[in-house]
């Protein structure tokens, strides 16, 4: 399957560089790019890409405003914020507005390609360092209360009659609360990474959650972490 990608970023050199890197991937097609949010939104409506890589801070229409437009008109398109900002408030705002990912521009090209593939499959993709920052702030009671009011992703709750987690799924939740990747979890529990992915999907379904970050916050809010 070919993953069709649109880039929206006001830095021409960065946009050109990312485009060149992504075009080396045999399963990627960069359908277009744009230097500002409004033009990016127009081109997204034209091309209807699978994934949009969207800068956060741009002149004119901001990344968040562009994200809101994309969510209204192209809800099936996965939008990944690709930014230099390591501000947790901007991360939570992006998640609240419907972004499926939040990645940092200093990441490796191969890692970016992997994250794009995961996003195209419907997964949430968030830089591990940002997940850890979010978890750290959630462990501060005052901060946790403020974030719970600010975003649905910070105060997830499943139905009371949700299926109970197995002991292995509890282990997965506990380790996820540290911001661990699937590879880290697989190593710690001596499991195949594919098995970990299945467990994570089952946890999301049972807890009626939609992302790994929500699992981590669920664990912290219920004192399920280490």
TrEMBL record:
GO biological process, one term: phosphorelay signal transduction system
Positions bearing 4-aspartylphosphate: 55
MF terms in GO: DNA binding
KW Cytoplasm (keyword) present: no
UniProt cross-references to Gene3D superfamilies, sorted A to Z: 3.40.50.2300
Swiss-Prot/TrEMBL keywords: DNA-binding, Phosphoprotein, Transcription, Transcription regulation
Residue ranges occupied by any HTH luxR-type domain in the UniProt entry: 158-223
Pfam families, sorted: GerE (PF00196), Response_reg (PF00072)
Domain annotation Response regulatory: ranges: 4-120
SUPFAM superfamilies: C-terminal effector domain of the bipartite response regulators, CheY-like
Membrane recorded as keyword: no
PROSITE patterns: HTH_LUXR_1, HTH_LUXR_2, RESPONSE_REGULATORY
Domain of life, source organism: Bacteria
Protein name: Response regulator protein
Organism of origin: Caballeronia udeis
């Amino acid at each position: 399957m070919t993953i069709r990608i649109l880039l929206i970023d006001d830095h021409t050199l960065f946009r050109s560089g990312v485009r060149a890197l992504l075009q080396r991937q045999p399963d990627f097609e960069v359908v277009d790019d744009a230097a500002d949010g409004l033009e990016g939104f127009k081109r997204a409506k034209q091309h209807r890409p699978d994934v949009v890589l969207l800068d956060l801070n741009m002149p004119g229409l901001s990344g968040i405003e562009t994200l809101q437009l994309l969510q209204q008109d192209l809800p099936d398109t996965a939008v990944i914020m690709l930014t230099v900002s390591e501000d947790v408030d901007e991360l939570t705002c992006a998640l609240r507005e419907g972004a499926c990912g939040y990645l940092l521009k200093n990441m490796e090209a191969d890692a970016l390609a992997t994250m794009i593939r995961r996003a195209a499959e419907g997964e949430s993709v968030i830089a591990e360092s940002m997940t850890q920052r979010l978890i750290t702030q959630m462990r501060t009671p005052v901060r946790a209360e403020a974030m719970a009011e600010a975003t649905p992703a910070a105060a997830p709750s499943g139905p009371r009659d949700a299926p109970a987690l197995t002991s292995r799924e509890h282990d997965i939740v506990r380790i996820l609360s540290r911001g661990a990747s699937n590879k880290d979890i697989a190593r710690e529990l001596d499991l195949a990474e594919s098995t970990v992915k299945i467990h994570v999907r089952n946890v999301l379904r049972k807890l009626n959650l939609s992302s790994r970050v929500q699992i981590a916050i669920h664990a912290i809010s219920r004192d399920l972490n280490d």
